[in-house]
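INFO  loader      accepted 1 record
INFO  loader      residues=203
INFO  predictor   begin
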Amino acid sequence: MAVLRPAAGPSAYLRYAAVWAPLVGLQFVVVLLLGAILFENIAPGTGTAAGVVCGLVAAGAATAFLFGRTRRMLTGTTVLVSPVGVELADTQGFRVRLRWRDVTGVGRVVDRQAPGAAVGRIGVPGGARVSAPVVRSHGLIGWGERVVPDTVPPALRRQLVAQPRDPRTGLVPVAVSFLAAGPADPSNPLLSQTHHFRPDLFA
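INFO  predictor   done
INFO  writer      dumping C-alpha cells
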C-alpha cells in the first residue's frame, strides 16, 4: 500500500494563491472604500490614506488565513493506494473510497480546498459572504463510497444527498484528484498507479 500526499512546494501554493487572488483583491477594494468613507467623516482629509491602510490590513489578514488553510490542506490530505483501490482523506473529515474496478474514467474533477467553506464576510459584519473557489484538475472518476463530516454546511449536504446512486450497488459518484496525490505533471504517482492498475482507461 502506498501513502501519497499533495505536492507542497512553491508551485502548489502559487496555484491556490492564483485562485484566491480575486477574492482578496475584492476584499481590499471594499474595505478601502468603507474605511475611506468612515475616516473622511471623522477626520476630513485622511479618508484615502486611512482607507488604503484598512484595505491592506484586511487583505493581509485574509492572505494569512488562506495561506494557513492551504498549508493544512496540503499537509493533512492523504491518498492510500492499494491493489484494491484508492482512498482519500482530507483535513475537513471527508473520506472517499474508490475501487479500481469501479473507476469509469479519467477526466476533469473539482479539487476543493475546503468544500462549502467561505472566506467570511467581506467588508463589515453582515456583508456579502464569499464562497471558496475551486481548483479544477484531472483525476479518477467512478462509483464509490463517501463519508461526509457532521460539520459540512447544510446546502452542500443536500447537494451530496441529491446525487444519483448506482442502482446495482448503491454507490455514489466520487472523484479523486491527481493533485491530492502529487504534482501536476506526468511524474504524479497516482497517475502512474492508474496506468498500472487500469491501463484500459488510457486506451
